[in-house]
Design goal:
Helix content is 46%, strand content 7%. By secondary structure, the protein is mainly α. The protein has two domains: 47 residues; 35 residues, no CATH class. Strand 1 and strand 2 form a beta hairpin. The N and C termini lie far apart (86 Å).
């Protein structure tokens, strides 16, 4: 049932798994330290700037909202100007 070779193989496997987690933890610490150093040198966060908000116009024909200055909603009778008009 339990032989010495099976126990040794199990211990080797457990040791490899433990070693793998140690290496992964160390790599993560280094990655976080590099990110923190970049954040300090850039003087801010690493997040991308958000795009500006865009005003929308309500179309009374279909009830949808379309961008200001862009084409109409595409339905017949829409009061918004079509592209090129």
């Amino acid at each position: 049932m339990f032989s010495l070779s099976k126990i040794l193989v199990l211990l080797v496997i457990l040791g490899l798994v433990w070693f793998g987690f140690q290496v992964a933890g160390e790599l993560d610490k280094r990655r976080q330290a590099r990110a923190e150093a970049r954040r300090k040198t850039s003087g801010g966060s690493l997040e991308r700037p958000k795009p500006p908000a865009e005003d929308l116009q309500h179309c009374p024909t279909c009830g949808t909202y379309v961008s200001s200055g862009q084409t109409n909603c595409g339905r017949e009778g829409c009061h918004l100007p079509k592209a090129g008009d």
